[in-house]
Amino acid sequence: MGQPFNSEKFRNSLVNYLNHLGYHNPTTSQQPLWQAVCLAIQDQLPKTSPKKAFASRHVNYLSMEFLLGRLTLNNLQNLGWTESIRNKLQEYDVQLVDLLECEHDPALGNGGLGRLAACFLDSMASIEQPATGYGLNYQYGLFRQSFTQGQQTESADDWDRDHYPWFCQSPIPAVEVGFGGQVHSKNGILQWIPDFQVIGKAHDIAIIGYRNHHQQPLRLWHASHPHPFNLKAFNLGHYANAESNAIEAEKITKVLYPNDNHAAGKRLRLMQQYFQCTCAITDIIYHHRQAGRPLAELPKYEVIQLNDTHPAIAIVELLRQLVDLYQWEWADAWQLTQQLFAYTNHTLMPEALECWDLHLFKRLLPRHYQLIEQIDAWFSATLKNHPDKQHYKTSNALLIKGHGKIRMANLSVIGSYAVNGVAKLHSRLVTEELFPEYAKLWPTKFTNVTNGITPRRWLLMCNPKLAELLNDTIGEQWQHDLSYLQSLENHLDNASFLQDYQDVKQSNKNNLAALIAQTTGIEINPEAMLDVQIKRLHEYKRQHLKLLHILALYQQLKTHPDPNLPPRVFLFAAKAAPGYDLAKNIIYAINQVAAVINHDPAVNQQLQIVFMPDYRVSLAEKIIPAADLSEQISTVGKEASGTGNMKLALNGALTVGTQDGANIEILDHVGAEHIFIFGQTVESARQLWQNEYHPEQILANNPQLQDILTLLKDGTFAQGNKQAFKPLVESLTTAGDPYLVLADFASYLDIQNKIDVRYQHPTTWFRSAAINTARCGIFSSDRAIRDYQQRIWLSDAQRIKG
């Protein structure tokens, strides 16, 4: 049961906050009213959660991203107050649905990594796993995306963090964080004297559990300088220098992932990561000691989960604090450190496995560099003394790589007691391809925890009509335990239920069509199949394979019109990193092809393309419930897991995908007849790469592909500009097609033809869609968190006792 809502207290708080904001009644403009409503809701939240005996340690979840999405409706839903607030606002002729649109998505994350972290925080609060999330309080996030003549344009994503009403006061002491300087020895004790220091101040967001009175903090750190204004410099006329310290400090938390294709960007990224980790480690130790516990018992009560390699420097920072601040012996400090950390790997992509330039690292963090050398020496001695040491004579296992690079993924494995991948295939490849030396050395260290998504946001909140249908059909227990969706299978032969299910999907498509028209000016056919590819723009995710399919259909309809071909709306949403030129060129190509096809009366009754700008959580919440087809077509072996595939399948979109990541597990659960699998296997793809794959051989034997690439080269879709899509075409040809787009093209077209046939039989299609909903309960993040509890977060003593 949720916390009871106090109507009178809410009214009084609302009026007080409006007065404080300079407004005097609830009929004022929407933005201040939304802020006042959120603050008034917070007044009713308990200051602390009830104390209970927990089965596992307190989790400290370190992530550079927390892609929360809008929190107001999510919090009302979890509290059980939605109807109460809606009714209260109607007394003032204010509609809650209108008020909710005032909220910007907090710009604290970008992609799947950050959204997974948000789902995990929700689940930890909902199943009452004690936890604190640690991240950075970015001012601007990544960027806001718009299109100018088809090209991606970036602008600052200012989400107005200084007036965000869901922040709550944090009583946490500020943290001093140093950079640069020298390491000195005094009486045999090493002392780091930084030459520049910043202050970390904590801002908490309460993560509210589902109907359980439980909440716990997401702690976000903001960087500032202890002396932001230098009056002496100002009085001497050095006006620009007077605030240089403040500018240098505050840029650490200005932007999520500053562009790092230059030296200054790399330096800033490393500063961000170290700042976050130092604040987190200092806070963890502070609370542990405040509880009256000795440092030696840290692993008994705490675990630090690294969400990818971005926070890996926390391993070295804990070691530094134990050795330098608390005067521990190095060996004892290192042993404790290895008992405290666990590492989640999210990628097999070499470019995503962070390596820091040794000289940059040494200049910025000189004491940490010394400690990394000690860790490297310890690891080398471990290998030297291992009975199978002949298997480890490889540079892949070394912490410090040749050519002056520090491998943060290697540090994460060496410094952690547990390492997990995020899908069964991915976890296998982590041990076989990414870390084979470590898997031989520490076989029990590696495990799998398949990702999950929170059903509160990704069904109950974003798809209320389907949620209502589920409640009416199988009851409400699925909201607490998604495995109860299995009972939906008892209704799959009920024609009335399947019609209701189809009606829900059509209603969601109608709503999305209205949003698309409002956002882009494009009037789509809401009766058409909605074919959706929504994810970060990257070569390995292969949005350009989807583009080739669209061009194949375009050619087909131009040369051999087929009125029986079911109409499709192809919907894309994705951001390309600012420095990723090829990804931007793919966006440009899709937009230019869309501009031609959408205005061609010969094809636009059957083909339409929409690229929705500024993809974010609140937009995904509109797209996912409406989707018919979920494109999960990443190159096999490259997608660790995916969670968009889970969200779409849960909401009744059929998946077309490669045998990769969690697609395999969706296949296992929904059955081969309710998913569309195509393309290479991991083994066949590996053989292609090992045998020097030549895309030109595929082109030579496929006239259709030749014609499609000619369309991209001859200016047809670029007002005659034959160079417009040169980077895209070259990536598929002279650059070697590294992600096997051409190798999978024929298989992809074949499966798409089968999809067309299936979609022409609505009863069959929507029965499969309902089966996807019924069988995807396993992909709840509640289940994933329980897996972490049982496989990773229980202490050794708890596992033995269990």
TrEMBL record:
<protein>
    <recommendedName>
        <fullName>Alpha-1,4 glucan phosphorylase</fullName>
        <ecNumber>2.4.1.1</ecNumber>
    </recommendedName>
</protein>
<dbReference type="Pfam" id="PF00343">
    <property type="entry name" value="Phosphorylase"/>
</dbReference>
<keyword id="KW-0663">Pyridoxal phosphate</keyword>
<keyword id="KW-0119">Carbohydrate metabolism</keyword>
<dbReference type="GO" id="GO:0005737">
    <property type="term" value="C:cytoplasm"/>
</dbReference>
<keyword id="KW-0021">Allosteric enzyme</keyword>
<keyword id="KW-0328">Glycosyltransferase</keyword>
<keyword id="KW-0808">Transferase</keyword>
<dbReference type="GO" id="GO:0008184">
    <property type="term" value="F:glycogen phosphorylase activity"/>
</dbReference>
<dbReference type="InterPro" id="IPR035090">
    <property type="entry name" value="Pyridoxal_P_attach_site"/>
</dbReference>
<dbReference type="InterPro" id="IPR000811">
    <property type="entry name" value="Glyco_trans_35"/>
</dbReference>
<comment type="function">
    <text>Phosphorylase is an important allosteric enzyme in carbohydrate metabolism. Enzymes from different sources differ in their regulatory mechanisms and in their natural substrates. However, all known phosphorylases share catalytic and structural properties.</text>
</comment>
<comment type="function">
    <text>Allosteric enzyme that catalyzes the rate-limiting step in glycogen catabolism, the phosphorolytic cleavage of glycogen to produce glucose-1-phosphate, and plays a central role in maintaining cellular and organismal glucose homeostasis.</text>
</comment>
<feature type="modified residue" description="N6-(pyridoxal phosphate)lysine">
    <location>
        <position position="647"/>
    </location>
</feature>
<dbReference type="GO" id="GO:0005980">
    <property type="term" value="P:glycogen catabolic process"/>
</dbReference>
<dbReference type="InterPro" id="IPR011833">
    <property type="entry name" value="Glycg_phsphrylas"/>
</dbReference>
<comment type="similarity">
    <text>Belongs to the glycogen phosphorylase family.</text>
</comment>
<dbReference type="GO" id="GO:0030170">
    <property type="term" value="F:pyridoxal phosphate binding"/>
</dbReference>
